[in-house]
Design a protein that fits this description.
The protein has about 150 residues and is an all-alpha fold. Helix content is about 60%, strand content about 0%. Helix 3 (about 50-70) packs antiparallel against helix 4, helix 3 (about 50-70) packs across helix 5 and helix 6 packs antiparallel against helix 7. The longest helix is centred in the middle third of the chain and has 17 residues, at about 50-70.
Length: about 150
Amino acid sequence: MTAFPAQPFTGRVTDCNCEECSSISESLRNKSWNEVPDAFVDFTCSPMLLTPAALQAFVPAYMLRSLDLLVEADSVVVEFTVYSLTPALPEDDPLSRKSTRLRECARLMTAGQVTTIRDFLSFVLGRHRDAEWLSRFVGPALSSVWQ
């Protein structure tokens, strides 16, 4: 994951102050992605609650854990990580809020980070047990967000 430098993240972790988001913020504050324990990723499952800058900082932890769990039958980490990197289907997000947020995340990424995310999504799509279903999300992500 050389495209994602392992640097302590000091920015805002989430945009919400609920108990769950406060706990996530506290757990990730001043950490780099390579310091995030697998147990944390397994428990939180999805980087969707992270701000765009925090997603950029921590998405490698989720992607690597997803690769570890790719062949597991019931791993939600893989699916939630993929969903966090793909735009919502129009019928699920008529106002395109998720897609707008995802494009904001993509604008923060370097070319190398975009390539790494594209490679991750393509790899998962080629090996996931529900690849046909995931292709509904991954295809638009590769053609419209991570280009």
